[in-house]
Specification:
By secondary structure, the protein is of the alpha+beta class. The chain is about 30% helix and about 30% strand.
């Protein structure tokens, strides 16, 4: 089991983080942000600010402060995100009660809960290749658009993209030094996209962050989610990573990945404030 190996591995620098801290640390790397996003990074606070009303581009990912300091930090972020939806990650790595009080007083409310879910790359997933389905990595603009189509259907349309975003996204998953893997599943005959899933490499953490895994409603129940997940785990294994994981929504993905062998750890919550 992954938890049995974690103790020994965690003493091997630089991978010296327990699962809760490991997942949180992946949120501190802003290499992926578009040019119109401002990054603010201090020991006590890290967040993004963008003029576009996208909560994932107006988000706080690190908070380290005493209770007395928190109201001022909440006020700072509120001003920076004025007129846009704002999101604040509250992870299971410290006493969150003072932060939750400050967020509530500042007009934020808790959204869905997520579980820190981790799988060692040595741990095999139940293998299954759905009949009539091909699983492949995104490698050109056509397959990138197919992945985006599934993502919009599964999670909702995030809104208009900037003109340069497709090329930037493709470079991050197919260019030299690419840190992102994008996987799609599609019908072998029609080539219609049916499922997708992504992973970001964190070489310094020896970890792959899983995100954006979804299947079209009409294609569910055929093993597509598992096949796309398997492709990402195999990519992490080939890259020499020791584990993969995600913040798994307790209402959707958490039961699925737990069934597939992921170990579940702490509970993280995103607090949100309307525009």
């Amino acid at each position: 089991a992954w938890s049995h190996r974690w103790g020994k591995l965690s003493r091997m620098p630089p991978q010296n983080l327990a699962p809760n801290g490991l997942l949180e640390r992946t949120q501190w790397d802003f290499f992926w942000v578009p040019p119109d996003v401002k990054t603010i990074e201090r020991p006590e606070l890290a967040y993004l600010s963008c003029p576009r009303d996208r909560h994932y581009l107006n988000m706080v990912t690190r908070t380290r402060a005493t209770g007395a300091e928190l109201p001022a930090l909440v006020a700072e972020v509120t001003a920076a995100h004025q007129g846009r939806r704002s999101r604040w990650l509250v992870p299971p790595t410290f006493d969150t009660e003072p932060l939750e009080r400050a967020l509530s007083a500042g007009g934020y409310f808790p959204d869905d809960n997520y579980r820190v879910s981790v799988l060692g790359c040595e741990d095999a997933l139940p293998r299954a290749t759905p009949e009539g389905i091909e699983v492949l990595a995104v490698h050109d603009l056509e397959t990138l658009e197919a992945s985006f189509e599934v993502s919009c259907a599964a999670f909702g349309d995030p809104g208009p993209r900037t003109s340069e975003q497709p090329e930037r996204d493709l470079k991050m998953c197919s260019g030299p030094g690419a840190r992102v893997v994008r996987i799609i599943a599609r019908d072998q005959e029609s080539r219609a996209p049916l499922g997708c899933g992504n992973m970001t490499f964190f070489e310094g953490l020896s970890f792959g962050l899983l995100w954006g895994g979804g299947t079209l409603p009409a294609a569910r129940g055929r093993g597509i989610y598992r096949a796309v997940l398997q492709a990402r785990v195999e990519a992490a294994r080939r890259a020499g990573l020791r584990a993969v994981g995600l913040f798994a929504n307790e209402q959707t993905s958490s039961p699925i990945v737990a069934h597939l062998g992921f170990e579940q750890h702490g509970r993280a919550t995103y607090w949100e404030r309307p525009a």
